[in-house]
Amino acid sequence: MSETVTFKLNGKDVTVPKGTTVMEAARREKVEIPHFCWHPGLSVAGVCRFCMVKVEGRPKLEIACNLQATDGMDVKTSTDDTKAAHKWALEFHLINHPLDCPICDQAGECGLQDYYMSVGKYHSQMTRPKVLKPKTLDVGKDLVLDTERCILCSRCVRFEEEVTKTGALGIFDRGDRAIVGTYPGTKIEHSYQTNLVDICPVGAFTSRDFRFKQRVWFLKDKPATCPGCSTGCSVDVFGKPETRTYYRVKPRQGEANGHWMCDKGRDTYKHLNQENRLRTALASDAKGKVSEATFADAIADLGSRLAAVNPAQDVALLVSAQHTSEEYKSLFDFFVRELGVKKVYQWREPGEKTDAFDGLLLRGDHNANTRGLQDALKEAGLPGGVKNEFDAVATSGAKIVIAVTPEIPWTFPSLERQLDSLSELGFVSFWSVAGSLTTRKKVKHALPLKGFAEKKGTFVNHAGKAAKLEHPFPCTVKDGRDVTEIVAALKQWRQNHGRH
Amino acid sequence: MGDTLNKVKITTAFEGKPNARALKTYVDNGGYTALKKAFSMQPAQIIDEVKAAGLRGRGGAGFPTGMKWGFVPKDDKGPKYIVCNNDEGEPGTFKDRYIAECNPHMLIEGMIIAGFAIGANKGYIYTRFEFFEEIRWLEIAIKEAYDAGFLGDNILGSGFKFHLDHYTGAGAYICGEETGLLSSLEGKKGQPKLKPPFPAVSGYLHRPTVVNNTETLATVPFIINNGAAAHKAIGTEKSPGTKLFCISGRVKRPGVYELPLGYPFEKLLNEDAGGMLPGYTLKACIPGGSSAPILTPEELKGLTLDYEAITAKGSMLGSGAIMIIDNTMSMVELLKVTVDFYHHESCGQCTPCREGTGWLANIMGGIAAGEGKKDDIERMNEISARMGGRTICALSDAAAMPTMSIVKKFGAEIADYIERGIRA
What we know:
heterodimer, A: 5-stranded parallel sheet, about 25% helix
């Protein structure tokens, strides 16, 4: 058992492991101590001088971030002294800040704004011209840097030193002329740069992707798990349900990812927007003409085709590992257990390096649920083992192929080519999020799927940790269904037509 | 109670001697005998002797030297360091360079003894970039000491190994702050380090390190040779020993004076420095360097130059700079150059200092340009009050203290200036 200390925080006894700082303890107790430079994922810099607290019996206020709690210590976070200190610390931060909130992307989620409302609310005493600094600097492909908005908290510099270990950023010059920047002739090259936007407590670093797209107060955020690789980072997806549009993905603190996520994962909202989606089902009419169809008609088309063949011989499933464990279960329960389908193939990217790892978060296995699919295969009594069996479909002799398509286009560089070759086969029912199918003349049947942010379910990551998707957005596509719902509809159709 | 008038020469003992800096002169006059004596003592004994001598840091803060040495963990077997802070940058101070000029070997001997006491086998002298001559002299002295066997792997057959290197700053005032100095010594940007941990536990390269001022270290051989009591016999009870005072301004004989602590201010001004130049009168004095609060002629009456007496007047002995402000000097200009200096030298890490020093300079720039506002004085007072005691190092305080004192004591002059809207 590790040693603990008990101290008083605003009069309440708090017990924490020895070595815990007052800032960490306060965070655990949900006591807000204003801060800029402190970040739970970075070392203590102690430079913003905002987190001043009063320790009874000590003459000066002290910074909570570098103050280890000791037995019997009596800490107060909200005395007249600390309140004045917080107000003044904020005033110092703001005197040279451009206050360009109306054109700043950070507005609405800015530390300066939030703290002004909670601990500020003073009339500024700054009557002199402000210090001007370089703006809209290109420091990396995903970033725009405004050094005038910067409050020099050094979080970004520490991130580059401690997390990416590239040391890509420095603070140059000194005093109020100091600016954050890259070294001469260099830029930030790594693929974790948008984390700088997240940890920047003000609008100094903004995201080139999200910049000027939307005011954050119009956005809703829902917790999810990044579907971009087998790490399974905890994320928040930001969207605007009224217009059925997604805007960004940001990391949420989680076991798999700590506080960060990679820039690739940030792109996992793009395929969910309408312009990139399969918006309606496709089905053939009685004369065999393929056109946009209602969900019910498409189910009827597929249902009747399935009814006309011997599933054990004539039906094949081609399944990618980017869907939830629950979906796989219902898929196999129906097709394998109920209909007796034997031809089940895994659909993976040819030549993928599943063991690759960039040392931080991104893994070579770009499928969020490889483990979940393996578990489901095993449970259905099918041979498992991670392998790409795409080519086996063409020679399987199946008359009907159910292709549960990969969701995230960037994770499957060969997807377009694979879709081309699939649509050459006899009858393939594409269950897909991505919309590029509709431009293919030879596609005979398609059902729009819900994206990861629009369904409930479970991803099992590389380490076997299950992460739940529990807070879905409404699907931006009217007829979008998850695999479980499609299977249920097929079952219903069969019941209605006397086949069960 | 020691003697506050007897002008014993310790750190300036070689002043005026021909070839004062040469090793031969130093050895011929009893140099490096303290080192031999130190090797016959236990390290803990040396620390106790320095504690008993009451030696206090001569760089500005006046922290007890023996106590600082005592903080170094004794059971730590890894490398430890002794660093000489020779980055003399406090405006009005020009004493440490004088030691490099007169007595470089006294400093080196003091460092070897300090190294022996705390168990450090490596020392660095960190000298201000602009001291071109002093840098040369120190490097010559280090070479002489190596050649004579006072530095090396087995000094004087004692088995004690001590190596000394010389390092030059890049011209930043902040590197005179001990942890800023260590950052610079490590090859990083000269920024003070967050404390705790303190350098005695985690300093240079995260190893136990003692940083002492040049004058402090140069006093050590005297204490070892003559004993703590001899040191205690000079100066006052709480401020024993001698101090180098740097008197500047419109006086007849400005310069460096080694005087016992507790020496009367008026005696220094009127006798040693020969009084004010004809036609000038004393308007104010900044003791201790530009960071110290200003004192009026009223406050200077009967003042003695020791840590306690100056603190009692609301200022500080600091580095021993005595800046004489005469009747022709404008307080607006004085305050402007002062805040401009701190604005220029703030490292920019801590927000109150980075923004506060700039804000003060900004306001003073406005006043000097004839654009002052009535409430500027009150505003500067409030800004200064919020800058003090809030930062990693004392630079913020160093800008705030003189500002508050000048505004408080000479506010009327500044207000008059603002009122009339004159340009400086």
